[in-house]
Amino acid sequence: MDGPATTVIVDSPSPEVLQAALHDVAFLVGHDVEAAASRAGFLLHQVRDHVPGPERTGLGWQAELVIADAAGRRGDAERLGVVAQAALAWADGAGDAFVAARAHQLLSTLHEILGDGGLALEHAVQGVERLPADAPAWVHGDHRSRLGITHEVLGDFDEARTRFTGLLRAAEAQGDQNLRLRTLNNLAYLELRAGREAEAAALAAELLEHSRRTGRALSAAAWDTVAHVRMGAGRWDSAEAVLRDALGDARLITEAGDVASLRINLARCLRHLGRFAEAAQSLAAAAEKCADLSFGEVGADLVLEQCELAAATGDFEGAYRLHRRFYDLTMERVSAAKHHRARVLAAIYATTEARRAGEHYQRLAERDHLTGLFNRRYVEDVVPARVAASGGRGWAIALLDLDHFKRVNDTHSHQVGDEVLQQFARYLEQFCGPGEIAARLGGEEFLLLLRDDHDHDHDDDDDDDQGRARVTVLRLLEAVRSHDWSVLAVGLRVTCSAGLVPVGGGGSALVDALAVADRNLYAAKRAGRDRLRSDAPRRRRDPR
């Protein structure tokens, strides 16, 4: 790998020797996280023991930033953010441009992890602009790569392409083969995202050839890029060969998550090639890697590919169950990511303003990312207490499901499907009164917690003496049925089915009510859809 040569530490190292060693270890963290963290800890002690005065603090922060970078690569975003923010605050006060630039670099990475591309870009720009001209060449390449990546994440493909092309020229001029390999991968992935398949294929081929010619191992990300380029072109046998090469390269495939992802992609290739038994074996191997760890997106990808394989082999009932599980995992992952973001930001900013921001992000964690409605986590946490506070009287739960929603996605596109979900959510909010709750449970399934004042023992055609909740749901169904959905797609028509039930006090009573509401919902579906079923038994009157 290209980068600084390893600096030898003597018994009483000078600040210059320690600075060189810190540059070494900052480069190493991108290639060997554990070794870099261990060596940075050693250098931190050396700085404290042998460097006097203010220079000690700047070098100390460089070591701390390497340790924080390693922690972030292991998944500890909280430590990454806390240390980087503290280092930036010190550097701004002390006028240490190098430490400030390195802190901005890590904060850019952090905010990309947390899903805030705008802040990631701001920090990436600062990381480039504040980096001193005399910083090592590989550091300049590192910071410029991060800036290109943030443009790509934000969908600004032209700007990202300009950045990466400039980096390729710089790598050639400097003879930096490591930067060239990394930039080729970034460019190939960019063109893949931009839909330029021919350009992506050419870059992927160049990436493989460069690795072969220089003897430099591809990272798991680079192998993944090459495989996806070939899968996108329908070259399933060629993609299979790439993935098997990747799984056989023990130099950089060291984390279970990398192996699981490669195994899932291999199963996808095998499924398209009709080799279902081998695909199942590859998925089983991926599941084994995921068993003891939480991989978030990788876990959801595993379930989705299991669903696709089940459908390909004719197990449609199993495919349906797996598809629902995939959506549940996706919703859980989004919600968990928002919780994680709230925790990290609260840890970074310990001021009163930061605590207010933390509360804001906590509220975001309770909301569905697409519709803005409350999510399943909020329902499970809040609804039992809301009902119990009223003595278990005067509430009803409605479960609602959009009819034939898969047909909407398949016929009109997932974008139209998302717009339907958003419009439906607006109707739910419109029909909710003060203190009532509208939530998206996952996929096309929704919940309303409504105030009620009457028993629910009516048939659909009985309009006399109906309870408030029942009237509300019937009006909602009529509003959805009458809405002009053709503004979203020609010929589009949307209806929904609903199951309604009165609910008593929290705990098991709520669980029972949800089960009855779900049963009523599917009764409405079986009866022809676009209707309400509410056949729960009459509530017992209070004894006199």
What does the model show?
With 544 residues, the chain is mainly alpha-helical. It has a domain at 373-533: Alpha-Beta Plaits (2-Layer Sandwich). It contains 22 helices and five strands. A five-stranded mixed beta sheet has the order 2-3-1-4-5, sandwiched between helices. A hairpin with a 2-residue loop joins strand 2 and strand 3 (445-451). The longest helix has 33 residues, at 316-348. It is globular.
- Please give the radius of gyration in angstroms: 28 Å
How does CATH name the architecture of one domain? 2-Layer Sandwich
CATH superfamily of one domain: Reverse transcriptase/Diguanylate cyclase domain
Q: What low-confidence regions span 5 or more consecutive residues with pLDDT below 50? A: 455-465, 536-544
| CA-CA gap between termini | 85 Å
Tally of DSSP helical segments: 22
* Strand order of the biggest β-sheet: 2-3-1-4-5
Average pLDDT reading: 84
- Biggest beta sheet attributes: 5 strands, mixed
Q: State the CATH topology of one domain.
A: Alpha-Beta Plaits
Shape: globular
**Fraction in beta strands:** 5-15%
Q: Which series of helices and strands comes N to C?
A: HHHHHHHHHHHHHHHHHHEHHEEHEHE
> What is the helix fraction of residues, given as a range?
55-70%
